[in-house]
Every structure is written in C-alpha cells, then in structure tokens.
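Continuing the series of single-chain predictions for the mutant panel. This is the parent chain; the variants come on the following pages.
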Amino acid sequence: MCYAYIVGSLRSEGCGEAGDILTTTEHTRRAGDAETAGAAPVWWGPIAQCGLVALLVALFLSLGIVVRSGRTLAFDQRAHHWIRGPVPTAFEDADPSFRTRLMHLGPDIGTATILFVPLAALALIGVRRHRAAAVMIASPVGALVLTFCLKGVFQRTRAEYACHRGPLCVIGYLFPSTHTVLTVVTYGLIGALLAARFAGGWRALVTLSVISVVGFVAVSLVYLDTHYLTDVVGGLLIGGAWLIASLALLRRVEAEPDGASDGFAL
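Parent structure:
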C-alpha cells in the first residue's frame, strides 16, 4: 500500500522522472511475476508425461509376463463368453445377428488407419504444418514396428493356429493387438490435432468420439474372437504410452521457430 501511495503521490505532484522510474519498476516486477507464474508448469509437465509412459509400459510388461505364462487363458475365455453372449463362440461370418454384423465394423475401422494416416498427413502439409505431418506418418509406422517386435517377444498364439513359417509367424501372434495399437495411436493423434482447434464443448466432443471409436474397436475384437481380452488390454497400454510420447514430440516440433504456422496446443 505504501508503494502504491508513493507512486500515486509522485504522479499527482508532477515528479515526472521519479514517477516514470517507479512506474517502470512496478511494470517490470509485475511482468516478472507473470513470467514466473506462467513458467511454473514447464518443469512438471514432461515429468508427469514420462511418469505416465513409464507406468503404462510397466503395466504392459507385467501383463505380458503373465500372458506368456499362459495363466490368463481361462480368464480370457470367460471374458469372451461374457462379451459375446449366448451365441456361437467361433469367428463366424455366417452369424446373421445385427450385433455381429455391427461388430464386424470394428476391425475394419482399425484397418482404415492405413488410409487415414496419409490423408491426415496431406491435410497437414496443405496448411504448411510439415513437421506435424512427419510425426503423423512416423508415429503409426513406429507403433507398427514396435508391435511386431513385441509380438515376437511374447509369441502368443492359439493352439489351433500353430505357426511353422519362421519369422512370418510374427504377423499371426496375438499379443499385443495390432488393430488396438494402431487405433489408439492414429485416431488419438488425429483427435488431438482436431481438439487443438476447438475449445470447451467441441473439444470434449472430439475427445469423447476418439475414446468411443477406440472402445468399439477393442470390444469388437474380443466379441469376434479375433483377440483375447488381454491382447486388447496390452494394445491399449502400449498404444497409450506411444501416443503420449508422440503427442509430446508433436508439441515440441510445433514449438520450434521454423515449425508450423499455427502451432499445436492441448
């Protein structure tokens, strides 16, 4: 209060030079306080992201060890029967029910990521966001390579589909689910880019839409007996970790001085 009173007195009494000095000092102090308040989240944001990624990876590896031991098979079979309901349990295209026909859209949505990735990259290039386009392409490709590597490590398969084709067997391994990983990463990136353009309710709608798509694909894979539930959960865990890392990379490259013109913010 004393500081404000002195400044006000100097201004009112015509002490121009002294008043300007004090006013400048006051503005500098307030700007410093604002910068300090704005810089506070900078250090804990990356730490929180790294912690979340580490947690998801740890959960995935723990689940993978249990899956590889074969102790989840009984649980997976019960989960499939619970999700599928009182209908034939095999993967049957001949099942005429509307529910089954609807569920067949799930794997198709997951496969459609190979179409949405280049389309999203072209859209980003069209608005001169070349670095974001590079991340949009590199992230799903990297996730696919990582998934195949993990499949080769855990080598989960079905007894009736035993593979004897050497390295090509990695394509048929179940854990983690490729469809789930690519769905999380691809639609997660596209959703984040779209959500950054909106605020409030529209951003929440985009987020909810992405979650709904990922959830539908995950449930459909278990319903159709394409994957066990633990395969899908593993895909959600490792896909979520990869998505968080990809969003952090996207935010970083968009923050570069010669990066995108309109930036990226979550």
